[in-house]
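Pasting two entries for a bug report.
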Amino acid sequence: MRTMMVVALCAMAMAARANAAIKEVPVTYSDGEATMKGFVVYDDAVTAKRPGIVMVHEWWGITQHIHNEARNFAQQGYTAFIADMYGDAKTADNPKDASALSGSVMKNPAVMESRFNAAREQLAKQASVDPQRIGAVGYCFGGAVVINEARAGADLAAVAGFHASLGLNTPAPAPGTVKAKILILNGADDPFAKREQYAALKKDFDAAKVDYRIVEYPGAVHAFTNPEATELGKKFNLPLRYDAKADQEAKAEAAKFLAADLKK
């Protein structure tokens, strides 16, 4: 009888877990006069407050890839907030428009900071989030955003950039001003990440005594975590390619890194 009760209880627990969905809720917020449309993503089976992650999209805007990544982080026990860096959830379906949208943010550090902070504020006030444990993750363009915001002293515990662009448009940080630990996960053969950019980044971070690490995956190029990258690369003749091995290894590295600082 006792064995049957244990089996029944286990079955009930498994059924409850199966019925618990990852919730993805649209959030309309503002940055000054600009209307922003992001998403909060979390596991509603978890009742306790949990760490939060601001997620910044690729130059295409908020695509299915970033939704999938947010769901992965929600399954790991975070509340993810997909930031809208372009306003009105604008997206691009070609490199010309994507470049224009991303450039409008990257060329104006004040806009980049304001839009990132607006998203962080939305995340921090979610009922499921512990506002004292917030990090950020970015992809390509988004990687550049989160690295630059960390350089600028954003209130973040940990920052991870996947196939991050390395354009630095924030001033070199002074020692002690960078609060976040930083992890950069890039393809070793990514032609968009120049050796001189790595050198400049390392010089600034070393001088400012930043806790950072760079991991490069041999053979991987740009956008290696995005399953749609290979087709996009062929379509637009760009060095984009999904790499399942690098994707798996980078995500495992990021999971370990973020947990060490956000779940302690």
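Entry 2 (this is the one that rendered wrong in the viewer):
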Amino acid sequence: MTEVTDKVERAIARFERVTQQIDSRDGPSRAAAQRERRRLNAGAGKLAKRIAIAAGVIWLATIAIGLVRPIGMFGFLAALLVTAAVVGFTLMRGRRESVTPAAPTADLPNGAMVERFDSYLYRARRALPAPAQNEVDAIAQILPSLKQTLERVDAVDPSAQDARRLMSIHLPGLIERYERVPPSYRQERDGEDKTVDQRLVEGLSASRSALADVSERLARADVAALETQGRFIQSRYGTQEIETDH
């Protein structure tokens, strides 16, 4: 009986892995992967630019010194070694930044914070259980429209502040605390008969609802502003009726 149960559980686990792989090829996770790829490509371009600037500065300094006094073969080799060291350090730093899922920092502008948070979620997703991954995908769906509205809003706007706290403090803190729990303890139930995995999913779900609410509030504010502007134009200059749906 135990063998049959084990086989069934293994089959279910294989099925879940396959369905997750199929789901990851399309839908929210695929869109998130495409956005991350664009960010990585942009980051690679910036990295190449930094390397080119650093190498250019080193060799301009070498040429300037050579015009004053000959640097000789040892000076030339020293310039090569310095260039190689700077390039290697820059590449290692860029690789570390591209691999480590860094949470957004509080000093980022609204649009940049959403981009960093989107990247953080995409990279942190793979270490989470399947139900939590579904919540992460649902959050990722909200982010493009949230970014579009937040970019036009001041960082001190109350709605923007709510979203910024969620993206830079509360949600990353939830995920990081989950990751600190040893896997062997994640299925233990607390005083409310809930596991660590369930607590994680509940926290992600609440965060998703809060971000969706912020996005909707900001979008409705834009709609209201458009309606007000339309009414003003109609009353001031209108020669034809402007219809507004209610």
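Dev reply: Rendering is fixed now. As a check, the viewer should reflect this: The CA atoms of residues 51 and 90 lie 7 Å apart.
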